[in-house]
Amino acid sequence: MSNHTSLYTVSDNVRRRNAVEKRFRFYGLTAIAIGIVALIVLLSSVLSNGSGAFQQTYVTLSVHLPADKLDKQGNRDPEEMKSVSTFGYSPLIRDAVVARADELGWVMPEGMKPKDMGALISKEAAAQLRNFVLANPEVVGTTIEIEMLANGRVDGYMKGRVDREFALLDSNIDVEQLDLVDLLIEGGNLEKRFNWAFLTSPDASGQRPEAAGLGVAILGSAYMMLVVLFLALPIGVAASIYLEEFAPTNKWTDLIEVNISNLAAVPSIVFGILGLAIFINFAGLPQSAPIVGGLVLTLMTLPTIIIATRASLKSVPPSIRDAALGVGASKMQAVFHHVLPLAAPGILTGTIIGLAQALGETAPLLLIGMVAFVKEYPSMPPEGFFDPASALPVQVFNWTQRADAGFVERASGAIIVLLVFLIIMNAVAVLLRRRFERRW
Amino acid sequence: MNDMRIAERATSVTESKISAKGVQVYYGDTHAIKDVDVEIDDKTVTAFIGPSGCGKSTFLRTLNRMNDTIDICRVQGDILLDGENIYDPKVDPVQLRAKVGMVFQKPNPFPKSIYDNVAYGPRIHGLAKNKADLDDIVEKSLRRGAIWDEVKDRLDAPGTGLSGGQQQRLCIARAVATEPEVLLMDEPCSALDPIATAQVEELIDDLRTKFSVVIVTHSMQQAARVSQKTAFFHLGNLVEFGETGQIFTNPIDPRTEAYITGRIG
Ligand SMILES: Nc1ncnc2c1ncn2[C@@H]1O[C@H](COP(=O)(O)OP(=O)(O)OP(=O)(O)O)[C@@H](O)[C@H]1O
Ligand SMILES: [Mg+2]
């Protein structure tokens, strides 16, 4: 170069390049910021809508259990006492509310009937009381202190979802009833507690959001994950090892390879149709059963696991295989003694990501009948795999379809539970990877 | 290093160990080895020399069938080990590789402990009856690899944590641990400093008393120092094969002379 340029003056070319770089960084930061804001909005809306589901209002009342109504034979035999249905119990609860209101000096407003006072307690309570009495027949004839679920509207009032303005428009609750609730709160009969029942109890019908829980859905999802884990992991890993280490490269393996990639992109609902046609209509497996759901999700998860496993097998340096073969190991020994241990972290991560995907999958489960209303817990595996069950994401879908506003809260709560499970699974994936990763 | 001393060692034992006849190797359509005949003697060091890409590694790998792992590779012709054709359909390459060990160009220890690196071969071949036996084999092999003194206090340390030269000697120890009859070495010293190279060369000379050694090298000096026989490859052909002394002092083919004197390569 003839004319000397100083290093202290930045040339035009370099300045332009730096400007481009600065802009690019800015775009990147903006993209990340947008992502984070979206995540925060999503999480805070789910949390604010759903946190209520983890709290539940309970009413504690003294209920008199008259022997002449509940045990006409007088022998305290639960088998015979079963003839009294929940309709026999709800008047007892109503009377208990009325009695407590009287004690607290309640003046019955015009137009209010004892029935309206009993309506503050969940319809589910009669069944709870009946179950309690059948389990403890000796309490018949006495008066017991018992804790019962409050009605969904009362629960909403306690959580701020329902107020007097709302009650004016709502046919299920009126202002006088809320006055009575205030009185009972003063009397110490109402209490809000952590809602374990949300995690353990089964679903409830459309009028009783306060009683609905995720117990059956969690069990169903867990059973399906078991099926997926025990089918997809061995099949997927075996298939990948064969394809990656043993299969010759020819037209057939190319075809298989392309098809596996294609399968990973097939919409999940297609797997649902396949499951319906093959597992239910052809193989005759029961509808709504975790085994069918598990099989469908296995089909869906397999491509994910195979792709992840093959990628991690590929990333093991070929020199390791040469080394093993060079000292006289068979191909099988080379793979199982040397390649697989090095690929394990990747395989585990792929499997857990596949499982997490399967856990959140809804569409194929709708098609195989997992959307049915299930109130009975499935039994223990292996029989339980064939019992009807629900699944977490389907339960969310199910609850958002229902009219009562209480279910919106439940659905958001279920989303939180689902997210917690997903976070746990991803954390396990990270931990396992750390644990097995040997950077030597 | 202008050390062109020729190994003046007696090559009295001239019993043939491996004899290759009319070997052709193809990678797909590429003809990588063209009609090569070689006799590799027992208890002798044979050096393969030649310019890059001439097929030295390819030919070396046909001797223990490591080429089987390359899908597109086809081998024709006969390679006899003690009179038995190693490409016979009845031959299991695994059994062959236990007899014909290999040290690769790039050190490739297993990502396991130093002990396990060496013990792996004997374990899978059932060479040790018990732990003490295995300990013996490991120690003996590491001594033969001229690395025992450096690692004896940290046999549990990862083999990949050693320096490049130490790793290569570990790989040699691993290869000799299975008591092979032939040891193939593909540029074993390309990653080593002169001191480690000298150690490895000494080791090769030592191994000669028990095994037949085939070594690929780019260093004329090394070939001259350690080998008794030398084969010169060029563009897939075996141009000249004979006593190392003769090849380096009195090559018959002009191409050999040109290569040795640095005019092609
Ligand atoms: N896996 C392979 N697939 C296709 N062609 C190959 C493969 N390995 C080697 N070749 C070709 O075979 C020829 C011989 O290669 P080879 O590795 O044997 O050479 P080399 O003599 O060992 O060279 P260098 O001294 O550089 O190691 C080369 O032309 C190379 O391109
Ligand atoms: Mg080579």
From TrEMBL, chain A:
Glycosyltransferase recorded as keyword: no
UniProt entry keywords in alphabetical sequence: Cell membrane, Membrane, Transmembrane, Transmembrane helix, Transport
NCBIfam families listed in its UniProt record: 3a0107s02c (TIGR00974)
GO biological process: phosphate ion transmembrane transport
Parts of the chain that traverse the membrane: 26-47, 222-243, 263-285, 291-313, 334-356, 411-432
Family: Belongs to the binding-protein-dependent transport system permease family. CysTW subfamily.
Gene: pstA
Domain ABC transmembrane type-1 stretches: 218-429
Biological source species: Halocynthiibacter styelae
A molecular function GO annotation: phosphate transmembrane transporter activity
Name recorded for this polypeptide: Phosphate transport system permease protein PstA
From TrEMBL, chain B:
Cellular component terms (Gene Ontology): membrane
Keyword field: ATP-binding, Nucleotide-binding, Phosphate transport, Transport
Family matches, as InterPro entries: AAA+_ATPase (IPR003593), ABC_transporter-like_ATP-bd (IPR003439), ABC_transporter-like_CS (IPR017871), P-loop_NTPase (IPR027417), PstB-like (IPR005670)
Transmembrane helix as UniProt keyword: no
Residue span, ABC transporter domain: 18-260
GO molecular function: ATP binding; ATP hydrolysis activity; phosphate transmembrane transporter activity
One BP annotation, GO: phosphate ion transmembrane transport
The keyword Nucleotide-binding is assigned to this record: yes
Gene3D superfamilies associated with the record: P-loop containing nucleotide triphosphate hydrolases
A UniProt-annotated Pfam family: ABC_tran
Protein name per its UniProtKB record: Phosphate ABC transporter ATP-binding protein
Annotated organism of origin: Halocynthiibacter styelae
